[in-house]
């Protein structure tokens, strides 16, 4: 079996995951019962009340075949108000309700004396392995994933990644990190992906067109999957700069062989932990931001960490059998 390639020249953080960005944690709730192969994954930017201490963020829609919720307000206001949730396509509404209830429990003024809360839920379609029509994801599963958030988290066929496929193999949750120096200071950038995209002949790993050697067929079926890419950084950036950072996820995605097919929902979100926006404030203290002309190392870190996170999802995934006996082998199973 081939070794896991290290993408690019930048070094990884000690954990090699998005949790190398201080304060970021991830939790899963995995549903593994026969035809139900799905779950919920939650990314917490910090361990405080995110509604009261909002996190600067921005998103890029690379290809918009998706059913996420909350992106309009993120685009308008440039902040997160809840943890980031990942699940299957038909679980979006349920998870959003759970986020709303959780925010109201912590802040009863929401929707009355205070504005409403903006839930943020991303999705991919896991219907090949998971009986998505069963609507198995419940609000309790979101709460379980939220409570499980930790810097040491599993990757692969877990949480929202349980039923996901990638390059006709088992996909799922992957994560990676890269350190970059900007004007003499070191900043950490990390990525977490929900990988559910691609056809085997397209697969490129570390610049090697591996899929062509693994595929027995030259037939190129349409790419109908999706990928959600979450990028965290501790570099002081504003929402405009974070949108630019999120766009670099597309570079990392393209290197693996994706062409963002017609039926693919490819969305990236970037946030910074360097500062927060208080809910109750007349003025907001903004730190000295990285100058635009000095962003290139962070762009490289974002692209490399996204590509490495996709590689991590493939190498971390375990085979899964689900709906109607459908099965996805892992990359490890398919290599000689």
From TrEMBL:
Keywords: Aminopeptidase, Hydrolase, Protease. GO terms for molecular function: aminopeptidase activity. Pfam families: Peptidase_S58. CDD domains: DmpA. Signal peptide: none annotated. It comes from the Bacteria. This is L-aminopeptidase/D-esterase.
């Amino acid at each position: 079996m081939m070794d896991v390639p290290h993408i690019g020249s930048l070094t990884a953080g000690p954990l090699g995951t998005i949790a190398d960005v201080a304060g970021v944690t991830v939790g899963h709730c995995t549903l593994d019962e026969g035809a139900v192969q799905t779950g919920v994954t939650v990314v917490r930017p910090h361990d405080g009340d995110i509604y009261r201490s909002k996190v600067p963020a921005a998103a890029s829609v690379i290809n918009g075949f998706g059913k996420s919720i909350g992106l309009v307000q993120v685009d308008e206001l440039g902040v997160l108000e809840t943890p980031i949730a990942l699940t299957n396509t038909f679980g979006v509404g349920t998870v959003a309700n759970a986020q709303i209830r959780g925010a109201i429990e912590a802040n009863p003024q929401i929707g009355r004396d205070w504005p409403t809360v903006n839930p943020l839920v991303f999705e991919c379609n896991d219907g090949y392995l998971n009986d998505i029509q069963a609507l198995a994801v419940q609000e309790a599963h979101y709460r379980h994933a939220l409570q499980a958030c930790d810097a040491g988290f599993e990757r692969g066929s877990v949480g929202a990644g349980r039923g996901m496929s990638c390059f006709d193999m088992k996909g799922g949750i992957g994560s990676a990190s890269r350190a970059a120096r900007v004007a003499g200071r070191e900043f950490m950038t990390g990525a977490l992906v929900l990988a559910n995209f691609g056809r085997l002949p397209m697969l490129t790993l570390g610049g090697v067109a591996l899929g062509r050697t693994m595929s027995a067929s030259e037939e190129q079926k349409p790419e109908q999957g999706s990928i959600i890419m979450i990028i965290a950084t501790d570099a002081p950036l504003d929402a405009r700069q974070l949108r630019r950072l999120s766009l670099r996820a597309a570079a990392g995605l393209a290197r693996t062989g994706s062409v963002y097919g017609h039926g693919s929902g490819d969305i990236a979100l970037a946030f910074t932990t360097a500062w927060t926006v208080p809910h109750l404030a007349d003025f907001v203290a903004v730190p000295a931001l990285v100058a635009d002309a000095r962003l290139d190392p962070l762009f490289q870190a974002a692209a490399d960490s996204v590509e490495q996170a996709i590689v991590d999802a493939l190498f971390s995934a375990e085979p899964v059998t689900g709906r109607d006996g459908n099965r996805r082998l892992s990359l490890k199973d398919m290599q000689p």
